[in-house]
Amino acid sequence: MDPTKPILQVKDLTHVYSAGTPFEHVAIEQINLSIFPGELIGVIGHTGSGKSTLIQHLNGLLKPSSGQVLFKGENIWKDKKFTHAIRGRVGLVFQYPEYQLFEESCRKDIAFGPRNQGVSGDELEARVRRAAGFVGLEESLLDKSPFDLSGGQKRRVAIAGVIAMEPDVLILDEPTAGLDAAGRDSILENIRAYQRAQNAAVIMVSHSMEEVAELCSRLIVMNKGRVAMDGVPAEIFTHADELTEMGLSVPQVTTVFRLLREKGLALPADVYTVRYALARLLERKEGRPC
Amino acid sequence: MLKDITLGQFFPGKTVIHRLDPRTKLLLLIVYIVALFLAKSYLSYALVLVFLVSVTLLGRIPFKAMTRGLKPMLIFILFTAVLNLFYTKGGTLLVDWWIFHIYSEGVKTAFFMVLRIMLLICGTFLLTYTTSPIALTDALERLLSPLKKLRVPVHELAMMMSIALRFIPTLIEETDKIISAQKARGADFETGSLVRRAKALIPILVPLFVSAFRRADELATAMECRCYHGGEGRTRLKVLRFASIDLIAFLLGVALLAGVIVLRHFGL
User: Fold this and answer.
1) Which end of chain A has fewer CB atoms at under 10 Å, N or C?
2) Chain A residues with beta carbon closer than 8 angstroms to that of B182
3) Is residue A162 within 8 angstroms of chain B, CB to CB?
4) What is the per-residue burial (b if ≥16 Cβ within 10 Å, else e) of B44-61?
5) What is the pLDDT of residues A67-81, one digit of tens each?
């Protein structure tokens, strides 16, 4: 894949729910975005800011009221077959995906997506194994019923079900919601592994500023149905006041550093992960200027 | 999509009809249905229609809501009309062509049948449009409470009914979510043979049932945590009381029934 050409483009996308009824509601309007291969994008925004509506447009689950979504330059709604094929190219993992499991074994459940895309035989088996590998599922679990697994394992099976389609763009809606710290870290690590191995674009909706600061190379901030900010985390998190106004926050460590700076300590303003903060503090301790 | 299922959904309001005791409304509906089935002539149908229209106006229910409610029944109504039209004999022969024979009696019966079904559906809708589901189950429980002496678990049945009603929107939302999730995995619900389409429902039904059972389990625990132990000795937040408007409504209902019976007696 050519990394300089966008894999997904969103042009003037607007979506209106229940148009023409008293319940009419504009969820997103005039969204313009380009997403490139290998990007790891975090989408943040207050509840109701249009994040979920936006991501459901990217794989053709929702049809735009106006505007277009282009996959490698082609409108994903150009014909029915193409829209169906897009669902395999742009994988979408919903919030709490473990509630969509239905097969009698994990192996069959993971195979559901690729089978719908027409994959069969040895290739299907290989896909299932690879997907299970990406999410760290042991071979022995594959023949178990997904309903016998723990919550964290179920989530892995569900994510593997989408990864098995080997999409070029992987979208996840709050993949770590309701998981403990260890489960969260390992799922984020799995996602990153997939992104690296396939040079896929990954889009992750999250409520945790720490998480997106740690993981993402680009942040998209949604507010009232529009893209309010789009840039690298270091840039975005310098707008602490604007983010607070939108009902969002900056990572806690950024706040700590800002307060320390206000107290008169000469510290950098671009701190947004604990790891980076630690490095800077150690440098300072050793007497080097920041 | 699925969210558009709002059939018979409660329209909150403060009109006389809304304020009537739900028990009164339930009983009135029964009286209304009996009157409807006793009606035989144009005049008696007109009487029932006037009753229905005035209740609709009093309850400020938009007529659109009524016609929308009739839409899903359209095929059934048409079917009844056609059957009655061709299979009722008597009166003068109006159409005699090939195997089709239409008699004047047939036209009349078909007309009355259609009118009867429509009035029946609209009447029931009026009840659910003006009465909240909770009030309705409450009323049902109270009206059936004599059956408790026969060891019929009336309270439990009413509780089950209100829980079921409460969870309809939740389950619809859940179904929508599951459909989207499976579509995202390339599931196809729209093409293929009937068998294939039926099979395509499995990925929706299994997760739906699993989550419904999970919800039921959680709800049971939550109710037990709040010391729910069935209907015995349980007091109510809203105590149902008959008021003077209930008496008036009753009298009007009885008047309707009496009117229809009298008309029937005189063969009008």
Assistant:
1) C
2) 100
3) yes
4) bbebbbebbeebbeebeb
5) 999 999 999 999 888
In degrees, rounded to 5, the angle at the alpha carbon of residue B167 between the alpha carbons of residues B207 and B164 is: 110
Domain boundaries, position A273: 251-290
| Chain center to CA of A114 | 21
Structural domain contains residue A40: no
Digit-coded pLDDT (tens) for B5-16: 555 677 888 888
For B200-241, the pLDDT digits (tens) are 899 999 999 999 999 999 999 999 999 898 877 788 887 888
Contact (Cβ atoms closer than 8 angstroms) between residue A110 and residue A160? yes
Structure tokens at B138: 């409450």
CB A141 within 8 A of CB A113: no
pLDDT digits (tens, 9 = 90+) for B130-188: 888 888 888 988 898 888 889 888 888 888 888 888 888 888 889 999 999 999 998 88
Q: List the structure tokens of B104.
A: 């004047």
User: If we measure between CA atoms, which residue out of A147, A76, A162 comes closest to residue B181?
Assistant: A162
The number of beta carbons lying within 10 Å of the beta carbon of residue B20 is 23
CA distance A99 to chain B (A): 6
Give dist(CA A187, CA A175) in Å, integer: 8
Q: What percentage of residues in chain A have a pLDDT greater than 70?
A: 97
pLDDT band at B1 (very low <50, low <70, confident <90, very high): very low
A138 within some domain: no
Do residues A4 and A36 make contact, with C-beta atoms less than 8 angstroms apart? yes
| pTM score, whole prediction | 0.77
Cα radius of gyration rounded to whole Å, chain B: 24
Classify residue A258: in a domain, yes or no: yes
Q: Is B185 on the interface with A (CB under 8 A)?
A: yes
User: Which of B52, B10, B7 has its CA nearest to residue B31?
Assistant: B52
